[in-house]
Structures are given as C-alpha cells and as structure tokens.
Amino acid sequence: MPPLAAIERFFERLFERPSARLFRARLQPVQLQRRIERAMESERLAAADRTLVPNRFVIHLNPVDLEGFGDMSSSLATELADGALVFARARHYTLVDRPRVDLLSDPTVERTDIRVVARFADPMGSRDGAMLGATAVGGGHDAVEGIHAVAFGGPGRSDTMVYTIPRPSAPRARLRITTHDGRDIICEFDGASLAIGRSTDNDLVLADGRVSRHHARVTGRRGTLVYTDLGSTNGSRVNGVAVGELVLGVGDRIELGDTTIIVEVAGDVP
User: Fold this and answer.
1) What is the pTM of this model?
2) I need a surface site. Which of 84, 89, 93, 118 has the fewest CB within 10 A?
C-alpha cells in the first residue's frame, strides 16, 4: 500500500469507525464509491503511454452493514460499477473491461468498516462466447464491436451496457542484457513469462552476486510487458527509480545488482 493511502487508512480507523459505532451511523454509498476509487488509484500500473487500473472490485462488509442498504442493495453494485467507469474515464485510465463490483457479506469485517479487494480481470465471456467489456482509454473513446446488456445488480436488471472488445495480444520483446562483467546478451521474450535470477532454475540466469536467487519476473499481461520484483534483497530500479511492479516500454532501463537490461520491443504475438 502506498504511504499516502496507508496514512489515510490510519486516520479513518482512528476517527471514523469509533464515531460511527458511537452514533450508530450507517454506511453511505458514497463511502463505498470513494473506497473503490482509492483502490483503483493504489493498484494502478503506469506505462509510458497509458495507466492500467483494476476492473474488478469485491467490497467486504459486515453483514449488518450490508443488510442496512435494504432494497437498494440489488442495484448498488451496478451504480458503483458505473461510478468506477466514470472515475476511470475522467482520469484517462485504461480498463481491459467494464468495471464490475460485488458486495460480499463478511463477518470478519468490523461494523462500519469497508474492505475493498481490487484486481485485474480479463473480459467476461458472454453466452455466445463473445467477450464483454469496455475501455476507458485516452479521451474516453470506446473500442466497440457490439453492444450487449448485462445486469450486475440482480435478476431481471438490464440497465448496464457493456461492449465487446478484442482480447489484447501478448507482447514480444527483445531484452539487451549487459552483465556485471561487461558482456552483452540478447534475450528474446515470447510474451509468456521470463524468470530472472542467480539460481539455475531461472529462464534468465545471471551470475551476479548482487542479484537474488529468484530476483524478478517479466510477464505479458493484457497486452503489456510487466516487470515484477520478487522481493529481492537489493531491489530493482527502472530508469533510476526503485520499483516493485511496473509496465515496461521501449527503451526502459532495468537495473538489478550490477546487471542492466534494456527493453527493445519487437512486436506482438498474435
């Protein structure tokens, strides 16, 4: 969790929950919406030309709080999903599919508390096998191939429109590696997964004493190239900045130990 989000969460627990318990205040939909927006911001992946944000949100609520929404609980998930889409479009974030929100009754969550689990999910399949989704890209233009109605809020509802989009292809890349002893190596990435580390069971083995046995992994995710540090001892830096996970672009410079990796994107895997 980013430092700012952690601080905000601390003060919420310090002030909001005790006062809510004292006055028996009910949770309001706007509070759920703000938590979704915060989760979207904290889990975003930044790339050179776009910012990817989660599109699936599960809100864990105490059973009493969930029951407190009464009749509106059937449409609340739909309204929250629509609000998440508006939020993403306003900030020119990229979604691989239209947001979906699920409300979950969870007795482990304290009264008036809100726990949001955000994740990236591929487009859902429709009954005829087509993928459903919508993208919030650039100025908000939707890549539409067909329009279908789907109800997120309960049986019989069809007021949420989602759109068919093509599944992103996996990226292919060429990685130019300069080892700790000055040698240059070219590694072709096929868009699947590339494990990097000192151990011989990695796909890319680096005989660098400052590289961890299992240091990092490069994966193709939703049409992007993602670098993930696997909790290495000395960490990873991309373009001079320490990172945990980052969407890579052409020319990005990865530093792990005394080894440098330059990304050269060659095309897409169909």
Assistant:
1) 0.44
2) 89
Sorted by sequence, the CB contacts under 8 Å of residue 233 that are 6+ apart come out as: 212
Tens digit of each residue's pLDDT (9 = 90 or more) over 93-107: 888 888 899 999 999
* CA neighbor of 95 nearest in space, from 150, 143, 145, 160: 143
Per-residue pLDDT tens for 210-228? 999 999 999 887 677 888 9
- DSSP assigned state of 8: H
Report CA torsion sign: 74, 78, 80, 81: positive
Whether residue 228 contacts residue 219, with contact meaning beta carbons closer than 8 Å, is answered with yes
* DSSP strand pairing (204-205 vs 193-197): parallel
Under 8 Å between Cβ of 229 and 243: yes
CA 29 to the chain's CA centroid: 23
Q: Can you give the length of the chain in residues?
A: 270
Contact 185, 259 (CB under 8 A): no
* Number of CB atoms found within 10 A of residue 253's CB: 14
* Separation CA 169–CA 244 (nearest Å): 24
Residue with tokens 């691989």: 96
Alpha-carbon distance of 40 to 35, in angstroms, equals 9
Tokens 């430092």 sit at which residue? 3
Q: How many CA atoms lie within 13 A of 56 on its CB side?
A: 8
CA distance 193 to 204: 11
- Strand runs (DSSP E) across 50-114, as ranges? 51-52, 56-61, 100-105
